[in-house]
Amino acid sequence: MENENASVWSSVRFWRRSAGWVTGVSAMLLIFLTFDSVGQITMGTDDDLKNKITKRVPAPTVINYHIDYKMSQKRGHEVPVIGEKELFFGKNWSEEEARALLHLGKLTSQAKNCMNCHTLLGNGAYYAPDLTKAWLDPTWETLAEAFGGKEYAISAFLQDPAGMAMHKRRMPNLNITEDEAKGLVAFLKHMSSIDTNGFPRNFSKSVEQFKQGETNAH
Amino acid sequence: MLTSIKTNNFDGCKSKELGMMYFRVAIVLFGAQLIMGLIAAIQFVVPGFLFEILDFSVARMVHINALVIWMLYAMIGSVYYLMPDETGIETVGIGIGKLAFWVLTLAVSIVVLVYIFVQVGAGTEFSIWFIHEGREYLEAPRWADIGITIVVLTFYANVFLTFMKGKRTGIMMVLVADLMALSGLYLAGMFFTDNISMDQFWWWWVIHLWVEATWEVFVGALAAYALIKILGAKREIVEMWLWIEVLMLFGSGILGLGHHYFWIGTPEYWWEIGALFSALEPVPLVAMFVHVFYDWGKENGIAIAKGEKPTEMKNSPAITWILLNAFGNFLGAGVWGFFHTLPQVNIYTHGTQFTAAHGHLAFFGAYATILIAMMYIGLQGAHGIEKLKSTFSSKMAAILISFGVMGMTIALTTAGYEQILVERAELGATWNAYFTAQNLPWYIQAQAWRAVMGVITLIGFVFLVWDMLNIDKRKTQKI
Fold this sequence. Notes:
The structure holds two protein chains of two kinds.
Chain A: H1 12-41, H2 46-50, E1 65-72, E2 77-85, H3 95-111, E3 119-120, E4 123-124, H4 138-147, H5 150-159, H6 178-192, H7 203-211
Helix pairs in contact in A: 3-6, 4-5, 5-6
Chain B: H1 14-45, H2 56-87, H3 94-117, H4 125-130, H5 142-165, H6 170-185, H7 196-231, H8 235-256, H9 269-280, H10 287-305, H11 316-339, H12 343-349, H13 353-382, H14 392-427, H15 431-438, H16 441-469
């Protein structure tokens, strides 16, 4: 078609150059936006938490605070609300301890292959519930008292999931140790404090409904 | 019959032989993918099936990893196969190419055995290095990551050096540029971070920029080659369209990455960017095929009008799969992707069976189909058949596999609707809401249909393998 040269629209050279330019410009824009996004999702610091500075992904020491997920009229969807300090497994975790615990939890979440049944931030498999706000799930409130706090309840469940099964579709025993379970609970609590732009939607409505005893269970 | 596997009529062309070696492993892994998928599908219906023996997480991990690996094998095989035709010379580093093949195959075997028999490790760096990384699609342990990188580098060096030495066609130019991006992107998924948002941010760089950008362009190049080879389509026209495809695919696909950044902790501006560019992604998917078939018909019309012999279809099974690719890519990646790409919809559909529905039809339509077509082109060459016709089993394979995958997609879409409306919209995504939706009769019914359709797909696969093994019998057929 180049030999005919009838129109620029049928010229290989024109389309090759256009493809190059469009690809190049898109890639540059993506790289520029990536710098901005990576900056915004870098973990905050312990001082940010102390000074009540909101970060999209807070520091590991967020496990020392009460976390909630509430409707924000300003943003039009639910956002994490980091409240007052609370004990986590009966203590206040230093920056170093919290970082180490979260590290253990994240490693365990990968080694135990959580993502191939559950979804994390909505990504993964769809065989088991989403874990984005698992820390805030009202299921744990019903067990909290018996175990002396919901972190203990979740930890006990993770160590014996088949034994504590609540549904026909059970979670298998993955040989999770007590320390690993603690790490996983910290990982889940940290994840629930991430600002996910309102995903999952209606979660807080569901929590209210659950508290009023409308369980929808079959 | 089995002796026909090693038959080749390539007149000493080693690159094509190497391509066939990759195809053979690819088809075996394809089978493994289907069997593991079927186990996982049964577990949705019968939750106790293989409980604590081969749990859903293991079956699903092997299912999606076998998928990615068989496609990479078939892609590498396709490149080794088409390179001598495009460049006009033998691939420069056959010895190193063969070595890389055996290293990769050994590594893949070890990885799969560890997945199935070790399954999970302790929460340590050791598990990440030697068992699996537990990151969907990128589960391969770190040692294998490094191995894969080295193997892919030797492959790329082979492609690049052959390209520089031989004839530089437009198809080769696209492949050389695309494969560089494709292999480089893998590096974005090779680090550990405690920050789950950061983790998924870079994870999507690999997954999205593979399957919605570089793989699509790769498929465009394969299709261009196949259409020239099978239909005798004009190279100028096909290559011009290939560049238009590259423009549209990268123009929409690169920034379309934004549609994975709606809810993982990343800023709100990705809502608009992701929605706009990903909504454009379907546009290029059907263009080239429509054009070439139209053009082919027109050329034939002119030839017949002049009283000349029209161009012939040289490989019917391959062209069947290429047609399925045209429609499958458009439906699976395009339509099913667009269904839930806008954030206003995606906030409800994200992480539901709807995603699984889209994933099944898109991977099949966009990639499995064209790679099966490439295998048929390879077999045609290996057996020196001038005109490869369809047989009963090749038709049954195409019909049953397409019907099975489409059926699974529709079943999963139905299950997805249930889940979206009940769990997400009505109740609101707590665990109680999740299980309420999972236990709805209509949901369970849809999952049962998915398993049935999975069986049909597997039967189609048996026909496919049977047809490929018996390809040499066609030599006696009248042309």
